[in-house]
Write a structure and sequence with these properties.
single chain, about 350 residues, alpha/beta, 434 Repressor (Amino-terminal Domain), Rossmann fold, 3 domains, 4-stranded parallel sheet, 13 helices
């Protein structure tokens, strides 16, 4: 299914010049002149119609003629939300993927930052491996005034290409040297959860981190190790492994590998709630009780964590606040393009639930 979808996407990019303004008008069920007015950001077009046309442009992969008179200089009052994903599924959002859960929750906060402004939002999911050296349609179509990049799945080459486009950009959820960024204090969050396990008498710790392809995995591991180094009580054993995928399946396979290697932790830390649920599923199949046999603590405090059995102790990263602040940073960058680069780190807090027990 994924392979077929990737072929469709590639076809759209290769045949992008075959899509005309008439095709867009048909898809949006409006006139050709209405499409033209939307492209040129005419105030005469209702917001609902504008979004309908812009969505049709995105779905068809239509690229307006950027050499048309005055087109590149016009503001659209549209901000792009670009979610970097591991793969492009048929679903608009994949709630087994922690990156997309994070993006969804952050996106609740972003509109709050747009209250009393004329800006609207367009969303796109983008996967670098499946799109090779291509750019997201949000950028190729030259119709956004600013961009949020959510997720850690991109490197310097991609960042440089985005920067060369000259679009005001803020990176959400990771540190970045090219753009303004806002992120939770990843190191502090894992430090808190590791310290909590040590203080509650756990001696054999296992940390299941996010994939090594995520730049955030380094800060997370540093928090785990620093908590151990600074603790007066040292664990008897500790293990750290990177999940292959940033989702439940990744967590399931990671703990399976640990278990089949004969390692028996008395506490497990998960890089996020999606990975944690995969771990819990495997332990349930092995008839391992949480927290009686193994304590579990996670990171992120997504809606999933409160509905697991038992409810997960986790680290809250205040995603809605991150979304609101990201919006404020981006609007400031649009208004003051020469201002000093912003680097904002939001502190985290530990949320105590039912998955950690005090051991003697």
């Amino acid at each position: 299914m994924l392979k077929t979808h990737a072929i469709k996407i590639q076809f759209r990019f290769e045949d992008i010049m075959a899509v005309t303004i008439i095709d867009v008008a048909r898809r949006a069920n409006v006139s050709k002149s209405t499409v033209s007015l939307v492209i040129n950001n005419s105030p005469a077009i209702k917001l609902e119609t504008k979004y309908k046309v812009l969505r049709a442009i995105e779905e068809l992969g239509y690229v307006p003629n950027i050499n048309a008179r005055g087109l590149t200089s016009r503001k659209t009052n549209i901000l792009g939300v670009l979610t970097m994903v591991e793969n492009l599924s048929q679903k608009s959002y994949n709630f087994d993927s922690d990156t997309e859960i994070f993006s969804y929750d952050v996106s609740i906060g972003i509109p709050k930052g747009l209250v009393n402004t004329d800006f609207g939002l367009l969303n796109e999911r983008f996967c670098i491996p499946e799109n090779s050296n291509d750019l997201p349609l949000l950028i190729k179509n030259n119709r956004i005034d600013g961009l949020f990049i959510i997720g850690g799945l991109f490197g310097d080459d991609f960042a440089k290409k985005i920067k060369d486009c000259g679009i005001p950009t803020v990176v959400v959820g990771r540190k970045n040297e090219f753009f303004d960024y806002i992120t939770a204090d990843l190191e502090q969050g894992v430090f808190l959860s590791t310290t909590h396990l040590l203080e509650t008498g756990h001696k054999k710790l296992c940390y299941i981190n996010c994939p090594v392809t995520f730049s955030t995995s380094v800060d997370r591991y540093n928090g785990f190790q620093k908590a151990i180094d600074s603790s007066e009580v040292k664990p008897e054993e500790k293990w750290s492994i990177n999940a292959e995928h940033n989702n439940g399946a990744g967590g399931y396979q990671a703990i399976k590998d640990i278990w089949e290697a004969g390692k028996r932790p008395d506490a497990i830390l998960a890089a996020n709630d999606s990975i944690a649920l995969g771990i819990m599923r495997y332990l349930y199949e092995q008839k391992v009780r949480i927290p009686e046999d193994i304590s579990m603590i996670s990171y992120e405090n997504s809606i999933l964590s409160g509905y697991s059995v038992p409810a997960l102790s986790t680290v809250d990263i205040n995603k809605e606040l991150i979304g609101e602040e990201a919006c404020r940073i981006l609007l400031n960058r649009i208004a003051r393009p020469k201002s000093k680069r912003v680097s904002m780190v939001i502190p985290t807090t530990l949320v105590h639930r039912d998955s950690v027990i005090v051991r003697s």
